[in-house]
Write a structure and sequence with these properties.
alpha/beta, Aldehyde Dehydrogenase, Chain A, domain 1, Aldehyde Dehydrogenase, Chain A, domain 2, 2 domains, 6-stranded mixed β-sheet, binds nicotinamide-adenine-dinucleotide, NAD, coiled coil, Aldehyde_DH_dom
Length: 477
């Protein structure tokens, strides 16, 4: 007898609500866990990830033919680096902060403690399925929370490995993995979690925030967008081309911080195009999509979406100067450069999230800034050029979640800096100290040490002396 839709729904709702209930008791115990306890768990997680290295690579290859080397540098290592950095610094990050006491509160002392938020939910996307599910988990565990991870439904093989690793380190009542599509995610979103850490598209980010508002649950939204890359006339051409080709075609362009479009100064445009073409040939051996050592598009639907964006640009006059080959039901797309691109094309209106790189020429840095500012605030902004004044001009003229000067994408891997968007590319931060902060409540505790504190002068009845005190407060404090 086949299961009806209602029975399936009742089944996953029961499973999820049981885990959620069980996590309540555990989250209360975890409030008392020590830094040592949490580090012990993170080390156990590190050990299991190292143990499953080969399976992780094979799973990502099965999911979208991601090359093993790319999995190592952009999935496994990134999570391991997060664990190691967190274990090394957690004691310092969670140390209560003693603060000064203002004169009107004389007699009291205050401190800020960092306590776990409680039950947390991580929703992750398919494009870095291992990294973006487990990276935030490191911060959630370090901060002392329970967690449910909802990975993307488009990476089933990776999800199997994630589930196996998690089950070897945690009981479900502490960390559980729930697979599923929109109905499962919407049910999860209806529950009163204490924090939701979402990584994905701005469109789904809005759905998450709306659902979280019903429970007044705090959210971190790590979203996407069009990350501009400026190559100014004094940039080092060969060096810029190499870094851009790496950052753009890693993961076949399916990277939230990949350069989305290039803004190139007219004086160096031809030279840069030649350098980009040469670098693509060197790195990917040939234009033949069958032999390029880089991964596929996640599924045919996304491949067709990218092809439509490409076709729209070509139909409106864009010139293909490298690549442009689609094969294997459009899930294998060669690294593609497009010139003569204009703002009325879809390629300049939406996040590309694939290996198409449009090139736009500018003659004045002010015009480049205007193009960037005509679009929603991006997750990343890249500037290639060597004059500090120009670098400063761009940083001050255009907002972005993150920025790199004379490089791209690798800012994601520096655990010492926050990673997050602004406006349409999200809010809140992840990584290292900032990730642990996202999963912690900064709780101020004021302790009164005397029965005659200076603050008692604020209590009624207000005699002439107290009136004098309140006047002094208004005037001087
Ligand atoms: P997505 O928003 O479609 O999906 C992300 C997650 O949300 C998945 O787990 C999915 O199952 C769930 N989801 C999808 N539709 C939903 C709905 N209607 N209701 C509830 N949940 C839903 O994103 P994606 O396609 O998996 O990933 C690509 C996007 O993610 C791009 O925009 C990219 O820029 C962004 N991204 C951002 C970062 C970052 O760190 N800022 C990193 C990677 C990807």
């Amino acid at each position: 007898m086949s299961t009806t839709a209602e029975e399936t729904k009742a089944g996953f709702e029961k499973e999820i609500s049981t885990i959620f209930e069980d996590q309540l008791a555990v989250s209360r115990q975890l409030r008392k866990s020590t830094v040592k306890d949490r580090i012990r768990k993170l080390k156990k997680l590190e050990k299991q990830i190292l143990h499953f290295q080969e399976e992780i690579k094979q799973a990502l290859y099965r999911d979208f033919q991601k090359p093993a080397e790319e999995t190592e540098i952009s999935e496994t290592w990134v999570v391991l680096a997060e664990i190691r950095h967190t274990c090394k610094n957690l004691k310092k990050w969670l140390r209560p902060q003693k603060v000064d006491t203002p004169l009107p509160l004389l007699g009291s002392t205050s401190e800020v403690i960092f306590e776990p938020k409680g039950r947390t939910l991580i929703i992750s996307p398919w494009n870095y399925p291992f990294n973006l599910a487990l990276g935030p988990l490191v911060s959630a565990v370090a901060a002392g929370n329970t967690c449910i991870i909802k990975p993307s439904e488009f990476t089933p093989s990776t999800n199997v490995v994630i589930k196996e690793i998690i089950s070897r380190v945690f009981d479900k009542a502490e960390v559980a993995v729930i697979e599923g599509e929109v109905p499962e995610t919407q049910y999860l979103l209806s529950l009163p979690f204490d924090h939701i850490f979402f990584t994905g598209s701005p469109a789904v980010g809005k759905i998450v925030m709306e659902a979280a508002a019903k429970n007044l649950t705090g959210v971190t939204l790590e979203l996407g967008g069009k990350s501009p890359t400026i190559i100014h006339k004094d940039a080092k051409i060969k060096d810029s081309a190499e870094k851009i080709v790496f950052g753009k075609f890693l993961n076949a362009g399916q990277t939230c911080v990949a350069p989305d479009y290039l803004l190139v100064h007219k004086d160096i445009k031809n030279e840069l195009i030649e350098a980009l073409k040469r670098t693509i040939k060197e790195k990917f051996h040939s234009d033949d999509p069958e032999t390029t050592p880089y991964c596929n598009i996640i599924n045919q639907k996304n491949g067709e979406r990218i092809k439509d964006i490409f076709q729209d640009a070509v139909d409106k006059g864009a010139k293909v100067i490298s690549g442009g080959n689609f094969s294997n039901n459009d899930i294998t797309i060669s690294p593609t450069l497009l010139d003569s691109v204009s703002e009325d094309m879809r390629i300049m209106g939406e996040e590309i999230f694939g290996p198409l790189l449009p090139i736009i020429e500018y003659d004045d840095l002010k015009n480049a800034a205007e193009i960037i500012n005509s679009k929603p605030k991006p997750l990343a902004l890249y500037y290639f050029g060597n004059t500090s004044k120009d670098q400063k001009f761009i940083i001050q003229s255009c907002q972005s979640g993150t920025t790199a000067i004379n490089d791209c994408v690798i800012q994601f891997t520096n655990t010492e800096i926050p990673f997050g968007g602004i406006g349409n590319s999200g809010f809140g931060n992840g990584h290292g100290y900032w990730g642990v902060r996202a999963f912690s409540h900064e709780r101020p505790i004021l302790k009164q040490n005397t029965i005659f504190p200076s603050s008692s002068l604020l209590h009624p009845p207000y005699n002439s002396f107290k009136r004098f005190v309140s006047k002094m407060l208004v005037k001087y404090f």
